[in-house]
């Protein structure tokens, strides 16, 4: 995966493993890459919220099973509910954090939703750190 900034947009390029190409070699190319997951909602996808909640739980649990983990999870807007008291994915996020995934929750968003004192996993972050993490995505850490 590569990222490229074009104007105000970021373009992600995903590469499919070619038939016959060694999967281990592809993984080794990614080692050291700074992979960032950006979640702006407590639901995955747009549509039914119950389905979106199931999909988010499944997505985060799948991250636990993958050999390559993201270096960071960035939670903004409604995504900060995931790292706060009452979230049904707290245990999954705790395990990801224990395995070295940095979890950043937007402080402005936590304040907006009245959740700053209810943050249970990860750290309170700011837009400077979030923007920097996104711009550094795909580079070696």
How do the helices and strands line up, and which of them pair or pack?
Blueprint: E1 2-6, E2 9-13, H1 23-30, E3 36-39, H2 49-65, E4 72-75, H3 90-98, E5 102-106, H4 107-112, E6 123-125, H5 127-136
Parallel strand pairs: 3-4, 4-5, 5-6
Antiparallel strand pairs: 1-2
Helix pairs in contact: 2-3
Walkthrough of the structure:
The chain is of the alpha/beta class and 141 residues long. It has one domain (35-136): DsrEFH-like (Hypothetical Protein Ychn, Chain: A, 3-Layer(aba) Sandwich), CATH 3.40.1260.10. It has helices at residues 23-30, 49-65, 90-98, 107-112, 127-136, and strands at residues 2-6, 9-13, 36-39, 72-75, 102-106, 123-125. The strands form two sheets. The chain has a four-stranded parallel sheet. Strands 1-2 form a two-stranded antiparallel ribbon. Strand 3 (36-39), helix 2 and strand 4 form a beta-alpha-beta unit. Helix 2 (49-65) runs parallel beside helix 3. The radius of gyration is 16 Å and the shape is globular.
Supply the key terms.
141 residues; Hypothetical Protein Ychn, Chain: A; four-stranded parallel beta sheet; two-stranded antiparallel sheet; 18% strand; globular
**Alpha plus pi helix count:** 5
What helical percentage do the residues reach? Answer: 25-40%
Q: Strand portion, in percent?
A: 15-25%
Q: Tell me the strand order in the biggest sheet.
A: 3-4-5-6
Question: What is the average of the pLDDT values?
Answer: 86
* Known CATH architecture: 3-Layer(aba) Sandwich
Rg over alpha carbons: 16 Å
Number of domains: 1
Strand runs, count = 6
CATH topology: Hypothetical Protein Ychn, Chain: A
Biggest sheet overview: 4 strands, parallel
SSE string: EEHEHEHEHEH
Distance between the termini: 15 Å
User: CATH top level?
Assistant: Alpha Beta
Poorly predicted runs of 5 or more residues = 25-29
Specify the overall morphology: globular
Secondary structure category: alpha/beta
The CATH homologous superfamily is named: DsrEFH-like
């Amino acid at each position: 995966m590569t990222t490229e900034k074009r104007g105000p947009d970021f373009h992600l390029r995903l590469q499919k493993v070619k038939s016959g190409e060694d999967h281990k070699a592809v993984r080794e190319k990614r080692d050291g890459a700074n992979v960032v997951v950006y979640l702006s909602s407590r639901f995955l996808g747009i549509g039914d919220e119950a389905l979106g909640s199931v999909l988010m739980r499944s997505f985060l649990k799948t991250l636990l099973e993958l050999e390559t983990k993201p270096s960071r999870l960035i939670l903004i807007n409604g995504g900060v509910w995931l790292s706060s008291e009452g979230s049904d994915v707290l245990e999954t996020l705790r395990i990801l954090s224990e395995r070295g995934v940095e979890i950043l929750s937007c402080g402005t968003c936590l304040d907006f939703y009245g959740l700053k004192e209810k943050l249970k996993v990860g750290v309170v972050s700011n837009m400077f750190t979030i923007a920097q993490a996104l711009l550094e995505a795909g580079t070696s850490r």
